Design the sequence.
């Protein structure tokens, strides 16, 4: 797990006490979501350095549209 994911993962795992099940690195179509709660219909993406390289904005927009479905 990357350092950028460790802090949110620690907080999200605490939701289990409230009956929420959060998974990390969940495949959704051709993409991987950082964190997902299927019950809450929630997808959380944590942007890191990979979102700053060439073409990343376009790929992020495609992923966002796919995840909205």
Sequence:
């Amino acid at each position: 797990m990357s350092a950028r994911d460790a802090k949110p993962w620690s907080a999200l795992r605490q939701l289990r006490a409230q009956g929420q099940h959060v998974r990390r690195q969940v495949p959704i179509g051709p993409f991987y979501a950082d964190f997902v709660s299927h019950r809450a219909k929630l997808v959380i993406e944590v942007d890191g350095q990979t979102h700053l390289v060439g073409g990343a904005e376009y790929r992020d927009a495609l992923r966002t549209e796919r995840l909205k479905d």
Helices lie at 3-13, 56-68. DSSP finds two helices and three strands in the chain. The chain has a mean pLDDT of 81. The chain has one domain: 3-68.
